[in-house]
Amino acid sequence: MTTPSDVLTPHEAATATAASSRRPRRLTPRFFARQLLRLAGSLTVLVVASFAMIHLIPGDPLRQMLGPTAPKELVEQRRSELGLDQSLLTQFTHYVRQLLSGDLGTSFFSSQPVTDIIGQGLPNTLALAVLATLTALAVAVPLGLWAAVRTHNGRRRGTETAFTTLTGAAVAIPEYLYGLALLLVLSLGLGLLPPAGLTGPASFVLPVTALAIAPAAMIARLARVETLRELDTDYMRLAHAKRLPAWRLYGVHLLPNTLTATLTMGGLLLSGLITGSVLVENVFAWPGLGLRTVEAITQKDYPVAQAMILVYGALVLVVNFLVDILLGILDPKSALSTSTRREG
């Protein structure tokens, strides 16, 4: 990360960084242990919640699976085979034992192992979310920096108004509406891109774009705020006074100092895109976890639905955990102060 000493003389750097001379202590193993403990606690709550949520949904999955005209004896026999006639505590104990052994059960409807279902769809869902996050960052960071430089010190009010209005509107529109619009215009209307499924690299364009628009607008707004704050620092004022080339001023000195909060937001958005991709995947018939999740919940396919909730929840928790660790590495002072506030 660029520091004031990169653009100031030694004497000037000492003066400009006097307020930050007291450096925080280095990140300790205790910090990582605390983060791991929080992750373990959150995963435990997730396991309990995934079991409870599915069983609290009204309706009989066996009657739905076998049909309303199925004999009662057949329904009860199947219920006993699946262990659904046991108490909830017994079912939960069996559920946890299966999880610890790596067995997520078998689909009620397709009799396919749930691990196979997840193994088929998870890579496609992750590819969609990661590409959308990278696309959003690639567009938003330069856009936010450009808007901040253009509107610094109250200049170009029209540019500022247009930027805030357009990005605010982009954030407010749900991803699936972007998906429907892109599908109608670029695929069904103009025939430029495949409308559904995964048939090649071109198939990624529409769903990735639909997922990336709102996050890109949000990150651009954040990047602009962070850049404006950085532009008012002493070392940036002095760099301006020294008439450094624009590429060095903005690309070498300004950009790295604005990325901590932006990258943190990007990591959090990745976890949101993983879960938010469910509706977009259904719009484009994407062979990920989204379509199977909707089917499992509507059919009350307990093993599949529970596994999907676990997978989505665990991915979000793990990404947030990694973001906390990354933030602690990039900005130890921020991580330590955050940890102190939580403990207090």
Q: What is the CA-atom radius of gyration, in angstroms?
A: 25 Å
Write the element-wise H/E pattern from the N-terminal end onward: HHHHHHHHHHHHHH
Summarize the amount of helix as a percent range.
Answer: over 70%
Measured between the Cα atoms of the first and last residue, the distance is 30 Å
The helix count comes to 14
Mean pLDDT: 76
**Which class do the helix and strand fractions yield?**
mainly alpha
User: Would you report the number of β strands?
Assistant: 0
How is the biggest beta sheet arranged?
Answer: none
What is the overall shape?
A: elongated
Beta-strand percent range? under 5%
Low-confidence region ranges: 1-25, 334-344
Provide tags for this entry.
344 residues, mainly alpha, 14 helices, 0% strand, elongated, disordered N terminus
SSE layout:
Blueprint: H1 10-16, H2 29-56, H3 61-66, H4 72-82, H5 88-100, H6 114-151, H7 157-172, H8 175-189, H9 205-231, H10 234-241, H11 246-283, H12 289-299, H13 302-330, H14 332-343
Helix pairs in contact: 2-13, 6-9, 6-11, 7-9, 8-9, 8-11, 9-11, 11-12, 11-13, 12-13, 13-14
Brief synopsis:
By secondary structure, the chain is mostly helical. It has 14 helices and no strands. Helix 6 crosses helix 9.
Task: Describe this entry's structure for a reader.
The protein is 75% helix and 0% strand. The chain has helices spanning 10-16, 29-56, 61-66, 72-82, 88-100, 114-151, 157-172, 175-189, 205-231, 234-241, 246-283, 289-299, 302-330, 332-343. The protein has 14 helices and no strands. With 344 residues, it is mainly alpha-helical. The two termini are 30 Å apart. Mean pLDDT is 76; it is low at 1-25 and 334-344.
